[in-house]
Known about the structure:
With about 170 residues, chain A is an alpha+beta fold.
Amino acid sequence: MRIPRARWTKDQPPRLAFVLPTPVAEICQALPDRLRELLIHPERSPQVIDRLFPRTHETEVDEREHRRLLGESLLERRRDQVEAYAELIAAAEPLRLQRGLRLLLPRASIDLFMRVTNDYRLLLATEMGIEDNEWQLDASLFQDRQREFVELVWLSGIQEILLEALTQ
Amino acid sequence: MKPVLAADTLTRPEEATKSKTSLGRPWKVIVWDDPINLMNYVVHVFQTVFGMPREEATQRMLEVHHQGRSLVATCDREDAEVYVDKLHSYGLQATMEQVEG
């Protein structure tokens, strides 16, 4: 499979033309549904929710008050981001012969695309129980989570490509 | 909105001093290491949230990576909550704590 590639178009303002090969495109297309399910039913995945919405305060009293004031709005904001991501993916152009998708991302959308991608990476990593910085070095540790491991590695690559593009 | 002291918390001088001191002390924003966020991504987040130049953002990221945490801002409570909220929205682990008196 080809490594995804990205280049800036000559439009004004320029957009990032990003080709996602089929397996990666499928991950990106399925990603909104996974996050929607999590954000609509947060009680079903408390560990993942704790990772996406970690503690702000050291003390229980302050933390409880903070969550009481902001809890629902934080969830709502994340849901809005997922919907915006889904719109970007839905607007992508399928390539001929089912070789993948061609995304055209305005610069202002790249940050959102990365954030939602990262949320899904955090979901995968939490479900896989990753706690070690060197997790990428030994795939055999995740023999019963091969699909998730591959998805996580590919999405890490996508993020690196987008970050590189932002520096250009 | 900044917190407003109720009148009855200022009836005793020592409590007033403690309350004033507690309110006056700034807050630290701390970012914690985690195994999932990419190093370049963390640099991007620091640049975006704090407006740090790339070199400083990279230094802070390396501090997080090697030392497990980095103090990225010292400010008032309201600003600290906004920063932590933004860092969380990018998937970073961050907390806030009041500077010790």
